Amino acid sequence: MLEFLFLFVIVAAGTGGELCVSRAMKVVGEVHDFRPAALFQFVLRAIRVGWMWIGIAMMTLAFFALLAMLSIENVSFVVPVTALSYAAGAFGAMLFLHERISRQRWIGVLIVCIGVTLVWLSRH
Questions:
Q1: Is the pTM here over 0.85, yes or no?
Q2: Cα→Cα distances 50→21, 90, 95, Å
Q3: Torsion (CA) 65, 48, 32, 41 in degrees, nearest 10
Q4: How many other C-beta atoms are found inside a 10 Å radius of the C-beta of residue 54?
Q5: Number of domains in the chain
Q6: Cβ–Cβ under 8 Å, residues 24 and 52
Q7: Mean pLDDT of the chain
Q8: Please, which of 24, 60, 84, 91 could form a disulfide with 52 given CB 3.0 to 4.6 Å?
């Protein structure tokens, strides 16, 4: 049961954090100038966007949940089951970022979910 809780936090907070950072970066825009001064200005713009800080906080929570899960489970189990974040990312991108997801990508998400299910059922 504890594994399920940690997995949920890893997937939900990690994916939520990635979605928030993505939203922040859409506000900030692309990097066009890679000189150090321009990159510094880019970072300053990025840290002024609230979504960036929400994303960083959520990803931090996911990281510590991952550490906790690795303390009680084998990495050969943890890494494959956290691949559920790919499915959560596709759904989140569709719902919150209004991205269009192709049928081929949905098939890929389904394959990942089948793989995660096989790994989960084979534990212990």
A1: yes
A2: 9, 23, 20
A3: -110
A4: 17
A5: 1
A6: yes
A7: 95
A8: 24
